[in-house]
Design goal:
Helix content of chain B: 25-40%
CATH topology of the largest domain in chain A: Neuraminidase
Largest sheet of chain A: 6 strands, mixed
Distance between the termini of chain B: 91 Å
CATH topology of the domain at 48-153 in chain B: 60s Ribosomal Protein L30, Chain: A
Distance between the termini of chain A: 38 Å
Helix content of chain A: 10-25%
Radius of gyration of chain A: 23 Å
Radius of gyration of chain B: 31 Å
Oligomer: heterodimer
CATH class of the domain at 48-153 in chain B: Alpha Beta
Strand order of the largest sheet of chain B: 3-6-4-5
CATH architecture of the domain at 48-153 in chain B: 2-Layer Sandwich
CATH superfamily of the largest domain in chain A: TolB, C-terminal domain
Number of helices of chain B: 4
Largest interface: A-B, 71 and 43 residues
Chain lengths: 430, 154
């Protein structure tokens, strides 16, 4: 049995190459004291050949943001797959803090598998989680990401974001004359074009349940907001008004879109009631008001306005329409997004002519610059508030990059095809 | 079942639950369907394509631009043409804010055409912000080519 297992594991080391769609590489930096975790290759008890290796996907996930150091199989002294087979000493010797073991079996449901897995706290010598995760065999990457989420949540205490998705725009290239709105898994796999057009597409924004995306399309010769259902591809334009129709931003309850209309003579923030299909005005000022973002409690909006002379971030109470200025440092602060706890904002800040992504606790007014790249824009925050992905340039090409909110881990998502921009992080998806 | 047996069973099930019974987790499939643009706008039927350039962050027209507009206005009125003015920006700054700046440029040009006698009912304006640059490259040479308004007549 042991010889077979070793042979099997040797094959694993040679293992599957990441598909062409893998986005994430070039992690620079990381936490000073990462958590040591070991994920034993899941014992595959199905007759079907194993095309994806769960432990590899989980390893890549957990190491994405420098918080974990995952022991590779070649460093392991034993390969347990059940609770009874775990010898805590084997893992203490390797300085492992947490251990994940499991086995995969065929499910009674056609085309599905069941993975029984356990998470162990090595120092305390006990199981901290055990579950049976089930899902379809063709979605095995998704199953692995859900396991990563569970492991992350049990250890870090906040939700994992490994089964979230990223929406982004890619611009025409030699291979494709169209702009495309794409979504992919957060690790870059399973990229698919949601919408394709010869005219520009902008400002993708996810619905709170992650089932729809709102975006701006110029297909009719002017900016118009569209809503598309991801699973069906059905799309419809919302009530078109004269001038700019842009910057859609879904309310937390999913019943309204904040957006920008310039029909009153200059861009202002409006709300679109999705059920009643009517527009209501929120800000009224002769300057430019744009880039709204809903607070997590649904009571206020962030927006960019040049009413004081140059772009700054403001907050407006949706009911009272009272406006409060939030940023006071520098002459260009724009495109703000709330953190999931509503206490800070992430935005574009220009200093000495260079555009960076910065963060500020709403109360304090103190700006902390996060990025050291150039021409940074379109920050999007992970639903657990831990990571920011943004658009930037490298050698004159549009790429996406990311940084943890503590600034310690930086990474680049090199583009697949053409140049990519305007990332939008999905909510946590079921 | 006797009362003692019942309560034993109940406390036993609580005990098992407290010890951490295996939870069941389900992963659903995620599918997506693609769509493509309907009502695709194209530039066909556009007779001329005049360009005016702008300084960074500004929407005012220089004297060369004013001359262009004056001359164009004459032709437009003479031939009864329609006008579509597109405002564009260079890539610096945020995309949506640039959409607003582009509109300022298009509107400024429209106002100048009206001052020069073109009927406002013949004029439409649209902003593309930084989305349709004329030149790629992150340098002033490219940027200056992108800060523009296009006057399209048809």
């Amino acid at each position: 049995m042991n010889v077979l297992k070793s042979l099997f594991l040797i094959l694993l080391f040679i293992s599957s190459q990441p598909s062409l769609s893998q986005l994430r590489i070039e992690i620079t930096g990381g936490a000073e004291d990462p958590i040591n975790i070991a994920v034993v290759p899941i014992d595959w008890k199905l007759e079907l050949p194993q095309e994806e290796y769960l432990h590899e996907i989980i390893k890549t996930d957990l190491e994405s943001f420098g918080e974990f150091k995952v022991l590779p199989p070649k460093g392991m002294l034993s390969f347990p797959s059940t609770e009874e087979e775990v010898f805590y000493r084997d893992w203490r010797l390797l300085n492992i803090d947490y251990l994940v073991v499991g086995h995969a079996n065929k499910s009674e449901i056609e085309g599905e598998l069941k993975i029984s897995y356990f998470i162990f706290d090595i120092a305390r010598e006990r199981v901290i989680h055990k579950a049976i995760m089930s899902g379809s065999i063709k979605s095995i990457r998704r199953v692995a990401h859900k396991m990563s989420d569970k492991i992350y949540k049990k250890i870090q205490g906040i939700p994992g974001i490994f089964s979230t998705r990223l929406a982004y725009i890619d611009k025409p290239s030699a291979d494709d004359k169209n702009f495309n709105l794409r979504i992919s898994d957060i690790d870059g796999f399973n990229g698919v074009s949601l919408f394709s057009s010869p005219q520009p597409i902008m400002s993708p924004n996810w619905s709170p349940l992650g089932d729809k995306v709102a975006y701006v399309s110029f297909e009719e010769g002017t900016s118009r907001i569209f809503i598309q259902t991801i699973s069906t591809g059905t799309r419809s334009g919302i009530k078109l008004e004269k001038g700019i129709n842009s910057s859609p931003n879904w309310s937390p309850k999913g019943d309204k879109l904040a957006a920008v209309l310039s029909k009153e003579g200059n861009p202002d923030i409006f709300l679109y009631d999705l059920k009643r299909e009517i527009w209501g005005q929120i800000t009224e000022h002769f300057g430019i008001d744009t880039e709204p973002d809903w607070s997590p409690d649904g009571k206020s909006l962030l927006f960019t306005s040049n009413r004081s002379g140059s772009p700054q971030i403001y907050q407006v109470n949706v009911r009272s329409k009272r406006v409060k200025r939030l940023t006071f440092e520098g002459t260009y602060n724009a495109r703000a997004r709330y953190s999931p706890d509503g206490k800070s904002i992430v935005f574009v800040h220009r200093r000495d002519g260079v555009f960076h992504i910065a963060t500020q606790k709403i109360r304090s007014g103190k700006v902390r610059i996060l990025t050291d790249t150039f021409l940074d824009e379109s920050p999007t925050i992970s639903p657990n508030g831990n990571v920011v992905i943004y658009a930037t340039k490298r050698k004159d090409e549009d790429i996406l990059a990311g940084i943890t909110i503590d600034g310690k881990t930086k990474f680049i998502l090199p583009s697949l095809r053409g140049e990519v921009r305007e990332p939008a992080w999905s909510p946590i998806l079921d | 079942m006797t009362l003692i047996r019942k309560s034993l069973l109940i406390s036993l099930s609580f005990f098992i639950a407290a010890c951490g019974s295996i939870s069941n987790e389900r992963v659903s499939d995620a599918s997506a369907v693609s769509a493509s643009a309907s009502g695709a706008y194209s530039d066909q039927g556009i007779t001329s394509n005049n360009v005016l350039y702008f300084a960074y962050d500004k929407s005012d027209v220089n004297s060369e631009g004013r001359t262009k507009i004056r001359n164009l206005a004459k032709i437009i009125n003479k031939e009864g043409l329609n006008v579509r003015i597109e405002g564009h920006c260079d890539e610096r700054g945020t995309r949506e804010y640039n959409l607003a700046l582009g509109e300022n440029r298009a509107k400024t040009v429209a106002e100048l055409l009206v001052i020069n006698g073109v009927s406002s009912s013949k004029i439409s304006t649209v902003s593309y912000g930084e989305e349709k640059p004329a030149a790629s490259g992150s340098n002033e040479n490219s940027w200056s080519q992108n800060r523009r308004a296009l006057i399209k007549t048809f």
